[in-house]
Amino acid sequence: MSADISPVIASTVQWLLRSYPVTGGVLDAALAEAQARQAATVAAWLRYPTAADAAVVALVGPGGSAWLDWITGADASGSDAAEEPWRSWVDEVVASWAACLLTTPELAEEAVIALARGEHAAGMSLDFRRLTRPDDSDRRATALLRHPDLLGPVADLHRAALIRHLQGDPLDADRV
Asked: pTM for this one?
């Protein structure tokens, strides 16, 4: 993979964790971060399946968190916004797809299986257990991050495009 989409993944994880914070201690925070990172990674790899796709998003940027912040009621336009440049690397579609994966186990399983067809997973042994088969500790750590009612507005933004993509429909910029 010649183009690196890790800034998109890291920023989207940061947005998810700040928007749906962990209420437990340090272990819960680590478990929640692992699950958010797995969801955002799967979503980003599906959204940008080739090196060319990743290169384009690395060049032009993904769009930022402003719309997502508005939908969730977060006020990211205050004086702290200038101190949070990572927000410009949040990808709305990746965040929406990650929310779908976190709240719908069947979609998470399908998405991980679909990664095998992409360039990102070539030659790699993938383990997304925390996303696809969370245990009780994982669930407790992500009470807000996996809550379907809380993530619903974000997940619903691009759920249809994710489902179409997992059914084999190629991504179309006009429909995502």
From this structure: 0.90
